[in-house]
Each structure stands twice: as structure tokens, then as C-alpha cells.
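Q: Please design a sequence for this.
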């Protein structure tokens, strides 16, 4: 999300020099490349799984699609951070909608994964193939809701010239007394539905799940939770600082709290810094799967072997070198993240 102060309603000077720079553009482009390649590999691996695909694997694939969609928008925000918005009105609306929908769908899918793991581990419900249809329907509903929630931004965002910044921007072009209330309302919606409510669902579900795992000796289920919890922790570390900072900024703009000019300047600085970490989240999950997810590595090597990219000798030697990899590879009740 972006919240530049472009209306000139704040008498304080809150523009932070040095962030909208070539360095920031380079960082966004690096994140774009890693996110594009990494999430494409995740989607490819899940799609190439001929058997053993679990409900969690389907959710993780859609999560990769959400991160992939976010990654596609990054080159445009990279150029925007250095040169302003030079792409016109339609791309402004389109890529703003993509970014909004990808963030909503990502957090909703993480909440769905937490519920799925709660059902599988706490309720000890066996994952059946017939359940996959329900999971696919849930994913479609998640994408539909995310698309609907992104519509207000798509409708209101426009590309226009901002005299104070001396460049074109892609931002909500609102005028009148209701403009501030509209912006605060959209932010409250993002805070509640787009972060804190799903985070509460994850906390409750994973709380019960960890208690159950603590009282069991099922090592396979412990492995299945390892990367999933790492994914959730990474999401919190990347997005929580930004959401807290934006929440404080929202309360300030809504005049719920009053901040002096020095505090507003520091707040604007924190918005820029935490936004970079939030944007970097789209490349994190594939790295976690690769370094922690044993089954993901095996599935990736199998897919590469079937395509003739690696030799059979390398494929067999790696699987022989991975303790318990064959059992993990064949397990129908273990997610790709195990």
C-alpha cells in the first residue's frame, strides 16, 4: 500500500528525502526477479505432482500465485519510486487492483491453511481426495472476495499530476469533505479484514495445533508444520511493522491522536522503511520451502528429472542422501512443506 501525503492538508513537512531513489528501485527489481522465479517454481512443482497432493499443497500453490501477482506489479512501483507514475491511468488502476487483491488473497489463504491444519491435526480428520474439491472452491471464494475488496481502490485510483511533488502519481483522486473519511475507511477495512482478523484466526488455530502437537509423538505431523509455521512467522515479521505504522498514521489522519511535526516526520520515515520489508515478503516463501521443505526439494528434483534437466544419477543420489525422503515423497497426508 502507498499513502503519500499529496493533498497539502498537513502543515508539517513529512516528505522523506532519499527513499524515492535509484537504490529503492533496484531493491524492488531484485525482489521482483526472485519473487517471479521462486513463486513460478512453486506453482510448477505443485502442478507437476502426479500424486500425494494435499489440501495444504493446493493452498500453498494459490499463495504462490498471490505472491506471483504481487511480484508482477513491482517493476511498476520500482519505476514509480524513482520517476513518478509514467504509465498512464489504466495501468494505474490495473496494477493497484492487482496489488490490493494479492495482499488480501495472501492473508486469507494463510488463514485457510491454519484452519486446514487445525482440522487435520487437532480434529485428526484424514485428508481425503474428495476434500480437494472443497479446497479448490474455498480458493475460488478467496480470490472472488479479494477481487471485490480491491474494487474501491481500482475505481478511485487515477494517474494525475501532483504539483507539490512535481511529478505524476498513482493515487486516490478524491476531493471534498468526505475524502479523508473515505481514506480512513479503506484503511480500517485493510487493517481489520486484510490483516488483524486473519491474524487472530491464525493465532487461535495454530495455538490449538501446537498444543496438540506438543502432546503427540507423530514426527510426520511435526515436519508438516515446520515450514507452515515459518511461513506464518515470515508473514508477521514482514507485514506487522507496516500495518502497525499505517494504523498509527490512520489514527493521526483521522484526528484520533495528535502528533507533532517531528513525530509525523519519523512516522513517514517508518512508513517508507516498513513498506520495503512488506514488499519483500512476496519472495520469502519459496526460499523457505527450498531450505526447510524436504518434500518440496524432492518434488522439484523429480520434476527437473522428468523434464531431462538433471540426470537420474543426481536425482537418485540426492534422494538417497535425504533421510526419510522416500517416505515423505510418497506420503499422501504430508504437505509439500514437510
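A: Design:
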Amino acid at each position: 500500500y502507498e499513502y503519500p501525503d499529496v493533498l497539502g492538508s498537513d502543515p508539517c513537512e513529512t516528505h522523506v528525502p532519499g527513499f524515492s531513489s535509484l537504490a529503492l528501485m533496484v531493491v524492488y527489481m531484485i525482489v521482483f526477479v526472485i519473487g517471479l522465479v521462486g513463486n513460478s517454481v512453486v506453482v510448477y512443482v505443485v502442478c507437476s505432482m502426479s500424486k500425494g497432493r494435499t489440501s495444504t499443497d493446493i493452498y500453498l500453490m494459490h499463495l504462490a500465485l498471490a505472491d506471483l501477482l504481487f511480484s508482477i506489479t513491482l517493476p511498476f512501483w520500482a519505476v514509480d519510486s524513482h520517476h513518478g507514475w509514467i504509465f498512464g491511468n489504466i495501468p494505474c488502476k490495473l496494477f493497484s487492483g492487482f496489488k490490493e487483491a494479492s495482499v488480501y488473497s495472501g492473508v486469507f489463504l494463510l488463514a485457510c491453511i491454519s484452519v486446514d491444519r487445525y482440522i487435520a491435526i487437532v480434529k485428526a480428520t484424514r485428508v481425503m481426495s474428495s476434500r480437494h474439491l472443497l479446497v479448490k472452491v474455498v480458493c475460488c471464494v478467496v480470490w472472488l472476495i479479494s477481487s471485490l475488496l480491491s474494487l474501491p481502490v481500482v475505481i478511485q485510483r487515477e494517474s494525475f499530476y501532483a504539483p507539490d511533488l512535481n511529478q505524476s502519481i498513482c493515487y486516490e483522486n478524491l476531493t471534498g469533505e468526505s475524502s479523508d473519511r473515505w481514506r480512513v475507511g479503506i484503511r480500517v477495512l485493510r487493517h481489520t479484514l486484510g490483516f488483524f482478523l486473519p491474524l487472530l484466526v491464525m493465532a487461535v488455530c495454530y495455538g490449538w495445533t501446537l498444543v496438540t502437537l506438543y502432546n503427540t509423538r507423530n514426527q510426520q505431523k511435526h515436519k508438516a508444520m515446520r515450514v507452515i509455521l515459518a511461513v506464518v512467522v515470515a508473514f508477521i515479521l514482514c507485514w506487522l511493522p507496516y500495518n502497525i505504522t499505517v494504523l498509527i498514521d490512520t489514527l493521526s489522519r483521522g484526528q484520533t491522536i495528535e502528533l507533532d511535526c517531528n513525530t509525523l516526520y519519523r512516522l513517514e520515515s517508518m512508513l517508507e522503511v516498513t513498506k520495503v520489508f512488506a514488499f519483500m515478503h512476496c519472495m520469502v516463501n519459496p526460499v523457505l520451502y527450498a531450505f526447510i521443505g524436504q518434500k518440496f526439494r524432492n518434488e522439484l528434483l523429480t520434476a527437473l528429472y522428468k523434464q531431462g534437466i538433471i540426470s537420474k544419477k543426481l536425482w537418485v543420489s540426492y534422494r538417497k542422501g535425504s533421510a526419510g525422503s522416500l517416505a515423505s515423497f510418497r506420503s499422501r497426508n504430508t504437505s509439500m512443506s514437510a
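Q: Thanks. Anything notable?
A: The longest strand covers residues 157-162. The beta strands are 157-162, 167-172.
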